[in-house]
Amino acid sequence: MDIKQVKRKVLLLGDGAVGKTSLIKKYVTDKFDDKYITTIGTKITKKDLRFQTPDGEMILTLMVWDILGQKGYKSIQSSSYRGAEGAMVVCDLTRGDTLHSMAEYWIPEMRKVTGEVPMVFVGNKCDLIDERQISEDELAGTAQQFSSQSFVSSAKTGENVEMIFNALGEAVIEDKTSTTAGSAPAAKDEITDLIGVTDHIIDEFCDSFGDRETAMAMIRQQFSSAGVDVKAPEKQSLLNAVERLAEVENGFKDDFLVKGTLAKRKRLIEQHG
User: pTM of whole model > 0.90?
Assistant: First the structure.
């Protein structure tokens, strides 16, 4: 009997520093890194899972999109949400506000694009028992509001890490609903500050490049070199970053167009910096 092969795009959502990147790193490489690194834009990781179904064996390829955990980057986040068929929503058990963010920000913003998709709720850092602010009952109560499962995990010890990804995999292959809300892009928010400017620049660069995954890698490299802090971007570092992006764009765009785009980006930064 032939083995059925299926691919699904899923999202890793949650506030910054809840451990999303550490969870996927632990799951894929069995290594833990406790150094906090802001995920600029989106990182994509592939992982194959094997399931036994009534129709035989299935290989499910999860394309895991690790989404920037900074609120306010709605354009680049909504672009990353398109086509997703499931989500792992992560909070930090030692920070109560990260649980509220699930229901108040991440899920509503995702659903504007994807509609209702299967979700798994995760309370990470369960190894930090003395620092815990969120109980398992509170986590479960939030998950139940969305008819979803909840788990506690530790990216450091590996507790339940494999289980939660398997649970998400099972949820997406069992889901029979359609995601009709993802057919149109979300409306753009008005730019009011440097976070909005940074969000616009990232999204615009990715759209113009075409290959979003490669474009994100370029963004990360140039923003890091320019010293951009996506949690609190500053005028000068952003000006440095757009100069670097223009140098990259010179390799695949007309010189006149590159100069015009650079000038527009600089004006935006000056207006809101």
Answer: no
